[in-house]
TrEMBL record:
GO terms for molecular function: hydrolase activity. It comes from Mariniphaga anaerophila. It comes from the Bacteria. The keyword Flavoprotein does not apply. This is 3-keto-alpha-glucoside-1,2-lyase/3-keto-2-hydroxy-glucal hydratase domain-containing protein. Keywords: Signal. Residues 1-23 form the signal peptide. It holds the Pfam family 3keto-disac_hyd. Residues 51-249 form the 3-keto-alpha-glucoside-1,2-lyase/3-keto-2-hydroxy-glucal hydratase domain.
Length: 251
């Protein structure tokens, strides 16, 4: 969540080069040799039967809007079926949220972060009551854990509930490679998954949650983590991040 320094310029250049390389091979760079890959931003017949819905179809951003803004999304682009931010966001702009609100759901998406950058996925975000999304919504942290070498708390690493719960056994792929994140949000119960492994599990509004919140940066934020229904959000926090295969299933 902390601001980027001037080295972000180099990171952005690296990201741009890797993005061009990705586009050149049609996004097949992560495919396993000899293995048939599902088309990007599509649902299988089985997924459709299970109730999954696409939040991003690779062509439009019709399911999203700017947090605390109008329906128009600014600072995000779609290139070759990939949604990516401008890398120019801050605490007070650039974050996007789903137009629909969700209470109990399972969310799955793939992401690819540039060196030294961080971003986040928000759950049950509330609009027009605070000036920043993270004052209302718990965050699944996205970060270049390999390249960022400054001292950080364990709850600042990828897949952590930022500022609240650290991960156990999280294994992140390096910048330039895709990671898969999954969140299960069912009532008070929340699970964070990374690359097929559950790495965080917690209960909203539990005594443990309340005690952690009282000691955190959220201690004076009355709306943080309190909503039982809200928007899914993606953070634009000054570092380039790509997203694809974003889908959700109501529970």
């Amino acid at each position: 969540m902390k601001k980027m320094n001037h080295i972000t310029i180099l990171a952005a250049l690296f990201f741009a080069l890797s993005f061009n390389a990705y586009s050149a091979d049609g996004g097949k760079g992560d495919a396993v040799a000899g293995e048939e890959q599902q088309a990007l931003n599509t649902l299988t017949k089985k997924e459709k039967q299970e109730g999954w819905k696409l939040l991003f179809d690779g062509v439009s951003i019709k399911n999203w809007k700017t947090f605390n803004g109008g329906k128009k999304v600014e600072g995000w682009k779609i290139v070759d079926g990939i949604l990516y931010n401008s890398g120019e966001g801050s605490d007070h702009g650039g974050d996007i949220i789903t137009k629909k609100q969700y209470d109990n759901f399972e969310l799955s998406l793939e992401w690819n972060i540039s060196p030294l950058s961080n971003s986040g996925i928000f759950i049950r975000a509330q609009e027009n009551i605070v000036n920043t999304i993270y004052k209302t919504a718990p965050e699944y942290q996205l970060s270049d854990d390999i390249g960022i070498t400054r001292k950080r708390e364990k709850y600042q690493f990828t897949a952590a509930c930022y500022g609240m719960y650290e991960t156990e056994g999280a294994a992140i792929n390096p910048p330039g490679e895709w990671n898969t994140s999954r969140l299960v949000v069912n009532g008070a119960h929340v699970e964070h998954w990374l690359n097929g492994k559950k790495v965080v599990e917690y209960e909203l509004w539990s005594q443990d949650w309340k005690e952690r919140k009282a000691k955190s940066k959220w201690k004076d934020e009355p709306y943080y983590g309190m909503a039982k229904k809200g928007h899914v959000g993606l953070q634009d926090h000054g570092g380039l991040t790509r997203f694809r295969n974003i889908k959700i299933k109501k529970l």
